[in-house]
Amino acid sequence: MAEVLEAAEDRPDTPPSAVLTDFGGVLTTSVLDSFRSYSARVSDDPLLIERLFREDAESSALLVEHECGRMGEAEFEKGIAGRLRQKGVDVGSAGLVAGVGAGMRPDETMLAALRELRAQGVPVAIVSNALGDDCYQGYDLDALADVVVISSEIGSRKPGRRIYRTACERLGVEPSACVMIDDLEHNLRGAARLGIRGLHHLDSDETTRALGELFGNGNGNGNGNGNGNGPHAGPGAPGPA
Asked: How far is residue 180's CA from residue 20's CA, in Å, rounded to a whole number?
């Protein structure tokens, strides 16, 4: 089941009135599945890319610089290709980011849930760490949400406090009035430091049902197109989130 995590510093008795949502892995199919598909194509280790981002200090530093907008896609790809070569995997740098994200598709259940929330008057903000220059291609983010906060545009990434605070300020709501939806638990822990409740996204239908309970629409059953991440998905590695 989708788990609602109360904020550590502020446990409001009132229900939330606004939604912050991750992009990759929530409004799309699984980021980690896409990482693993790419890794399996270029190596014999399907966990290669997420291990690189999570365990290799140089790769993690490159990711931070790129997601915060201080490093362009081409330079980031060149750096990651170099780190892959250090691991014995020889890949070209051009198109690496597109290849890593090629398996991601729109999650129609979650997109419909956002439309339903906004139709009820619930303000919605997309809060996303950008991976690549074109990771939102094909999505009209301004049509999906009232506010869009992208890490590369403000120079701050999840799970740092600034990106969540910026989203709340632009929505005109207090952090304690918000719930954050994310597939990565460490991003929810970051939001919790501001008093934002967390909804850990594991399956689209379960998340939609949880939103229905939180916002009292009596529906929240989705359309049956869950992303299949499964109830025991771990926090995994960062990505276009």
From this structure: 5
Cα–Cα distance list, 140 to 19, 82, 91, 144, 159 (Å):
18, 33, 32, 6, 24
Interatomic CA distance for residues 163 and 166, integer angstroms: 5
In the block, tokens 């190596």 appear at 43
Q: In the Cβ-directed half-sphere of 216, how many Cα atoms lie within 13 Å?
A: 7
Q: Which residue has the tokens 């981002």?
A: 53
Cα-Cα end-to-end distance for the chain: 21
Read off the pLDDT of residues 16-50 as tens digits, 9 standing for 90 and up.
999 999 999 999 999 999 999 999 999 999 999 99
Sequence-distant contacts of 85-93: CB under 8 A, at least 24 apart? 87/43, 87/48, 87/52, 88/43, 89/42, 89/43, 89/48, 91/42
Buried b or exposed e, range 40-64, using 16+ CB within 10 angstroms? eebbeebbbbbebbeebeebbebbb
**Cα 216 from Cα 22, distance rounded (Å):** 22
**What pLDDT is recorded for position 222?**
39
Distances (CA, A) of 181 to 26, 55, 150, 187, 201: 8, 25, 15, 9, 6
State phi, psi for 7 to the nearest 5 degrees: -65, 140
Classified as helix, coil or strand, 231 is coil
